[in-house]
Specification:
With about 110 residues, the protein is mainly beta. It contains one helix and five strands.
Length: about 110
């Protein structure tokens, strides 16, 4: 899934989308580890402040995986929290400086 964050204005916006399992067929074609069995529901609050963007929310679906013992398929419900923070690279800043900022942000949690 990709989102064009440039269309979001400063402040808070909400994304509430449902994707059919077939949308992920090409992304999972190279693996037989799992199959997206039910629609994927995504809800995100997007907060944009200058060059900083924070996205928080949830993604829910059901995956189908094969039992490693008997190889029979079974379904696993997924209810995952999303908490992403990005800062657009500023002209003149090196990639190392951007990575250092991300590491500092990750350590604060």
């Amino acid at each position: 899934m990709r989102f064009d964050l440039s269309r979001f204005k400063s402040g808070t916006d909400r994304i509430d989308r449902t994707y059919e399992p077939g949308v992920f067929a090409s992304a999972t074609a190279d693996t037989d580890d799992f199959l997206v069995a039910e629609p994927v529901h995504l809800t995100l609050d997007v907060k944009k402040n200058g060059n900083r963007v924070a996205m928080t929310g949830r993604v829910t679906t059901v995956l189908e995986v094969a039992c490693s013992r008997c190889l029979e398929p079974y379904r696993v419900p997924v209810d995952a929290r999303v908490d992403l923070r990005r800062r657009r690279n500023q002209p003149g800043r090196s990639q190392d400086a951007v990575i250092a900022d991300h590491l500092r942000c990750a350590r604060r949690r």
